[in-house]
Amino acid sequence: MIIDFLLGEKDPRCLLLALKTLNRKLEGLKEGGWEEEVLEAVMVYYPITFEPPPGDRRGVSNESLRRELNECLRKVGGVKVCLERCEEEGEDEKVKGLEDLRVVIGSSLPPYASDVRDCLLQCQESFFRDNVKSCVLDIVTDVARRIETEDNEIWRKEFVEGSVRYLKGSVSENPESVNGRSAVEFLASVTKGGGKNAGIVLKGVAEDLLDMCVSDDEKRASAAATGLGLIFAGTKSDLIVSPNPISPYSDAAVLAFNKLTSSNQVAGVIAMMSLFCCPPESVVELNVVEEYSRSIFGKIVEVEAADDFLKASSICLGNILGLEIYSPVTTRMLPQLIERSLNGNCGHSLTAISKACGNSRGVTRVVLPEIFKKVCEGLREAGEGGKDGSRALVELVKEGGKNIVENFGGGEGGEEGVELLSIVKSLCSILPDSDLEEKRVAAGLEAVPNLIEVFKIVVRPNAELLAIVNYFKNIIKEDDALNRKRLNVSLPLFTASLTKLEGGGGDMNVGDWTELNDALVGLVKPLCKISRNLTHCLDVRTAASEGLMRIVKGSTTVQASFLKEVVKEIVETLKSFKDIETLGNDVRLLARIGGAAACKGGAEGEVADEVVRVLCGMCCDCEENDLKVRVVGGEGLGEFIRSEGGGPFWRQRAASIALPEIMESIEAGLEGTEENSSDYQKCFGSIIAAGHFAQSLPVKVVSKGGVSSKSLNVLQCLMAGLVLAEKRKGMGEPWEAGAWEVVINSAMLSFQRLTSAGGEDMAVFEGYYETLLPTLLHFSLRNSYSVDGNVLALDCLKNIAANGTFAKIKKSLILINHRLGLVLGHPRREVRMKAVEVRNIFILLDRKN
C-alpha cells in the first residue's frame, strides 16, 4: 500500500512522509523478493531535485528528502542507481553521487564489487579536484574496512586485488606523475582497511617503489619514497594480522630512505617516520631506530635556520620519542633534547620535544617539570634562562596539545596552583637595594610576552587561579617603588590568567568559585586606581584596565550597584580634569568598564547606558566642552563600541541612545558657515563617534534617518563630514589639523567596512554613489593626505567594484578611470601600486559588461 502511495507523488511533504514510513516498515523485514519492487517504486525519485522556494516554512528540504531516499536505496540494494549518477559529467553531480553511494553501500557489501571499483577508479582518474578525490578516498577506506571486518573474499579479490592490478602500472612506471600520485593515494586508502588488504597492496607495489627509491633520478626517488611512506602510514589504522605486513620490506626501506635522508631529502624523512611509527609493534630493530634518531638529532641541533628538511626531521624525531615501543631510545635521548631546547636559538629542538609531548603523557611528565624549573631559576637569577625557558614553555603549550595543558597545576598527584604561581613568585623576587634588582626587572620583562601566552592558554577558573589572585592582592596592597616594579612584570600575567574567566567555574566546587569571585570583586577598585594613575607606565595601566574588563564580564558577584558606584566616581573626576592626558586616560577606562557591562547585559546593561550618555555629552555638548574634549569623547565611544563579547544586540541598544544625539550635533555643525567658526565645532567629536558606530553596526542601522524625517543618517553625515574636514583641515591651530585627520580616518574606515559587506547591504549603500564616489576619488588623489588615508579610499573603491552593481557604477565610470589615472602620478609608491590594482579592476569590469 505504501508503494502504491509513492507512485506519481509530487507533493514534497507527502513524499517525505511516505519515504519515512517506508523506511520504518523496511527496518524489520527480512529479504524475501520484495526488494526489486520497492527499488522500482523509489528509484524514479532519484536524484532529488526539489528545492524549497525562498521563505518556505513547511520544513521540507532537499537534504531531508535525499536522506530518506538514500536510506530506502540502502535497504533495497540501490547501489547501481548511485553509480549511474557518479558517471555524470558535472563535478557537483559526481560529488553528490559519490556522497549518496557512500550511504547506500551501507554497513554490508552489496554484490557489485567490480562495478563499485571501476566507478571509483574512473572518478579518481578523471577528476583531480580535492572534493571529488576526498569523496572517492573516503568510500575506498569504508569499503576496505568492511572487506576486512566481514572477511569477504569475493570483494577482496574483486575490489582490492583488482585495484592493485589496475593501478600497478601507474605506480611502478611513473610515481611522480599526477596519475601516479593519485594511484598511490587510492592504494593507501585500501591499506587503511586492515592487515590483509595492506599485505595485498604491498605485495603488488612495494618492491617496485623500493627499487625507484634508490634511483639516480632524485625526483622519481622522492616520489617513490613519498608514495611508499603514504602506504606504510595507511597500515597504522587497523592492523588485525600478525606479523605486520610491512615487516618483509622494512630492511630494504631503511636503506632506501636513509639514502634520501643523507642527501637532505624531505621525502626520505617523512617515509622513514611512516616506517618507524607503526604501532602496536615496531617493524625495525631498536638499534636502527636509535641510530637514525641520533643522526637527525645531530642535524637539527647544528642548524637552526628555517628549513623544510630540518622541520620534517624534528617532527619525525618527536613522533619516534613519543611512542611507547621506543621508550629505551626516549630515555637515553630526552635529556639531551631538553638541554638543547633551553639554549637560545632552538626552534627545531622545540618542535621535536613538543611533538613528543603531544604523543605521550609519560614524556610530558618528564619534560614539563624540567623546563618549568629552568624558567623559574632563570627568572630568579636574572639571566638568559628565563627568556629562553619561557620561549620553550610557550612552544610546548601551543604545540604539545592537551597532554601539556592538563599537566599544569601540579600534574598528577601534585598540589593545585603550585606551578604557575611559582612563575609569578619568581618574577616578583626583586630584592630592595640589590645590584640584581634592575637586571631582574629587565630579564622578567623580556620573558613576560611569552609567559602571557602560556597563562592565556593554561589558566582556568580553578584553585590555581584563586592562588594567583590571592598572591596578586598582596602585591598591590602597598604602592611603593619595589611593588611598582613587581607590578610591571606580574600584572600582565594576572590579566592573562583571567582570559577564561567568562566561561564559568568549570570543575570548581561552589565554595571555591564563590571565594574566587569575592577575591576578584575586591580587586576592582585597586585596579581602577592603577589604571587611572599616570605615574604607572602605559603597559601597566592597559593591563589593569583589561583585567578589570575581564572581571566585570566573568565574575558572577560584581553587582550593577557596585559598578554604578565605580562609574560615578570616575565621572565626577571628569568634570574637573586637570589636563587632556588625564581626561583621555579616564575616558578610556570608563569606556572599557561600560563596554564590559554592556557585553554582560542584564542589570549591568543600565551601567553601560549611563556610560554611553556621559560620553555622548562629552562629544556633542558644544556649550561646555572644547574641541579636544569632543575628540576624547568621540574616541571614548569608539573604545566602548569595539568591546568584544556579549550578545548580538548590545551595540544596537547603545546606538539607539547615542545616534540621535550624535546626528543632531552633526547637523547643527554642518549648518554653520566657514566664517562662523564656532558652528562647525559642534560636529567635531560627533563625526568621530559616528564613524566608530558605522564600523560596528549593520548597514541598515546606519542608513536609517536621524532624529526627524528630514534629518541626515549616519552615512550622509560621514560623507558631509569628510568634505568639512578637508575644508577646515588647514585652518585653526596646528593640533586641529591632526584632529581632523582622526575624523577622516574614522569615516574612511567605516566606508571600507561597509563597502565590503555585499548583498542587500551593498544595495543600500549604492543609493549614495553620486556623493560618495567623487569624495573617495578626491581623497585617493590628495598628496597632503596620509598614505594610509589614500589607500583606505582606494580600498573602498575596490570593494565597490567587487560588490556593487555595474549599472549603478556605469554612470561614474569615466570619472573613476580619469581620476585613478591621475592617482598613478602620486609621489608615494604604495598609493601608485594600489591605484594600478583598482584601475585594472574597473577596466575589466567595464569590458566584462
UniProtKB/TrEMBL annotation:
Kindly report the protein's main subcellular placement as a broad class: nucleus
- Subcellular location(s) per record: Nucleus
| InterPro entries linked | ARM-type_fold, MMS19, MMS19_N
For this UniProt record, the keywords arranged alphabetically read as follows: DNA damage, DNA repair, Nucleus
**Which part of the chain is the MMS19 N-terminal domain?**
2-73
Any Pfam family from its record, for instance, is MMS19_N
List the GO biological process terms: DNA repair; iron-sulfur cluster assembly; protein maturation
A GO cellular-component term linked to this record: cytosolic [4Fe-4S] assembly targeting complex
Summary of the function given for this chain in its UniProt record: Key component of the cytosolic iron-sulfur protein assembly (CIA) complex, a multiprotein complex that mediates the incorporation of iron-sulfur cluster into apoproteins specifically involved in DNA metabolism and genomic integrity. In the CIA complex, MMS19 acts as an adapter between early-acting CIA components and a subset of cellular target iron-sulfur proteins.
Q: According to its UniProt record, which protein family does this protein belong to?
A: Belongs to the MET18/MMS19 family.
Report what the protein is called. Answer: MMS19 nucleotide excision repair protein
Q: Tell me what organism the protein belongs to.
A: Triparma verrucosa
